[in-house]
Amino acid sequence: MSDIRERIEDDRGLLKKIQMFVPGFRGYRIKEDIRDADRMLRNQLADNIGLLCRDIENARSMMPIKFNSKDPEYIGGIINSYKKLESLVQHAEFGYSGIAADISFKEEELDRLYEFDLKLFEELDVIKKENDSLKNHITSGSSDSIVNEIINLRNLLDNFETEFNRRIDVVQDTVVKQ
Questions:
Q1: What is the value of pTM for the model shown?
Q2: Cα separations in angstroms, 80 against 101, 140, 154
Q3: 149 burial level (CB within 10 Å; 0-12, 13-18, 19+)
Q4: What's the CA gap between 38 and 30, in Å, rounded?
Q5: Under DSSP, is residue 64 helix (H, G, I), strand (E, B) or coil?
Q6: DSSP 8-state class, residue 177
Q7: Residue 119 located in a structural domain
Q8: CB contact set of 139 (below 8 Å; sequence gap of 6+)
């Protein structure tokens, strides 16, 4: 995956290039560009989560009648988890600190935030494999291990959500060690 930060830097317009030379604006411009790159990255992540959700929704709509009557309900829980994650990722904090913030975001921390979000694509690849496995079980009519597939996918989604919710604390190094 290409680094969006580099693309944004390369595509700076005239006004943004001028801002890079104005005292006090340079740091602001750099931070804003990193925030924009992170926002674009998170939008791609959210779009991918949405695609996985639609895959499962489509598979559920083709479920044979012979499945256990609880299976569609469990799959509905997976769909709800996907929708929650998609919204969480789309509307997440992206490194703004107020005028009198307790902890302000520095350029290095914004870069770490971007790297953290980029790493989530690796976790999403693991989720996609489990998602494909569940989808295959659903569409093939094999109800034998569908509950195990649902549990595995649910655990992966829960872990993804937990990790994503920790992102600001991890990046700012404000996590209290237990």
A1: 0.81
A2: 34, 23, 11
A3: buried
A4: 12
A5: coil
A6: P
A7: yes
A8: 59, 62
Residue 56: its pLDDT value, please?
93
Tokens of 167: 């992102």
CB-based contact 92:42 (threshold 8 Å): yes
Q: Tell me if 178 is assigned to some domain.
A: no
Alpha helices by DSSP H, listed for the chain, are 4-10, 14-19, 26-61, 71-90, 107-140, 146-165, 167-172
DSSP 8-state assignment for residue 162:
H
pLDDT tens digits, 64-86? 665 566 778 888 999 999 999 99
Q: Enumerate residues 6+ apart whose C-beta is below 8 A from 135.
A: 55, 56, 59
Q: How many domains does the chain have?
A: 1
Q: Has residue 11 been placed in a domain?
A: yes
Contact 126, 50 (CB under 8 A): no
Phi then psi for 130, rounded to 5 degrees? -70, -35
Quote the domain boundaries for residue 127.
Answer: 2-173
